[in-house]
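Tokens in:
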């Protein structure tokens, strides 16, 4: 079973993988005449770029218990050409706060949907759902359920967007760009894992995903890190056929750790397909509204 985050070991592995993905030309270093036995930059080159000793880089990559300062982390992030999300991940692993700006992801989290659940319903007819930092689906509207799966019929432990897209057999062909969708989702999950190192439930989820799918295990080992704020998904609905949605992820200020996810059609053909999916929801709402006065008089 995967334990909660071992920051020292994960920091070592992350630095190695980021070093190995770089070419000397990526960082304006002269190409070496001698053939490289391993891919990427050498430790000496990283040390030179970051302004630290080679021995320090070696000890970091061997997980020998160092806790680098924010200044050293900034230097390593620049040397390794880390993205903003990878930079935050690096600081999370080192249990440091980035210099010059607050942490990009809050540590606190509340699972209760509260008033935001009403907002999810108010967003109809746009499909919307509310997630916590573990990607548990804690609120949704009928349109999102009609598009993806009827979340209300699932056991609570399966109401998780990462579990659904990786292990749910009925959604195996739902994502037309499955490899890209999984890779982006797992990169986002890895960022959450580092930001919540003591969350055993999150670690248990990751263990279930990686042990239950060779595909997930392979992508998790890449150590990609990316927080997905917006993008596109190419879907294949069982009755409406292929469609493409654009998604937007909003972070409510009053609910740290939660994410409000909203879908909208990306093109006219997708709009027609999405309208066909949500038409059923409109009919259900109409029936409920028609029956409400009679129920009230009773």
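Residues out:
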């Amino acid at each position: 079973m995967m334990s909660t985050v071992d920051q020292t070991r994960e920091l070592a592995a992350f630095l190695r993988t980021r070093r190995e993905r770089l070419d000397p030309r990526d960082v304006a270093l002269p190409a070496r005449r001698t053939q490289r036995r391993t891919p990427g930059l050498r430790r000496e080159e990283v040390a030179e770029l970051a302004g630290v000793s080679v021995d320090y880089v070696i000890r970091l990559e061997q997980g020998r218990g160092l806790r680098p300062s924010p200044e050293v982390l900034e230097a390593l992030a620049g040397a390794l050409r880390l993205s903003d999300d990878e930079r935050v991940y690096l600081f999370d692993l080192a249990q440091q706060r980035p210099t010059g700006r607050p942490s990009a992801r809050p540590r606190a989290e509340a699972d209760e949907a509260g008033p935001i659940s009403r907002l999810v319903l108010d967003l109809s007819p746009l499909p919307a759902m509310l997630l916590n930092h573990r990607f548990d689906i804690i609120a949704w509207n009928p349109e999102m359920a009609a598009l993806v799966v009827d979340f209300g019929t699932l056991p609570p432990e399966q109401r998780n967007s990462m579990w659904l897209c990786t292990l749910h057999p009925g959604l195996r062909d739902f994502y037309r760009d499955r490899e890209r969708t999984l890779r982006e989702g797992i990169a986002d999950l890895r960022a959450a894992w580092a930001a919540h190192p003591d969350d055993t439930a999150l670690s248990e989820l990751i263990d279930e995903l990686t042990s239950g799918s060779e595909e997930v295990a392979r992508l998790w080992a890449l150590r990609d890190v990316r927080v997905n704020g917006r993008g596109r998904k190419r879907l294949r609905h069982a009755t409406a056929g292929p469609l493409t949605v654009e998604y937007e992820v909003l972070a409510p200020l009053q609910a740290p750790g939660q994410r409000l996810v909203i879908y909208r059609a990306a093109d006219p053909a997708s709009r027609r397909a999405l309208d066909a999916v949500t038409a059923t929801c409109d009919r259900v709402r109409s029936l409920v509204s028609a029956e409400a006065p009679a129920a009230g008089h009773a």
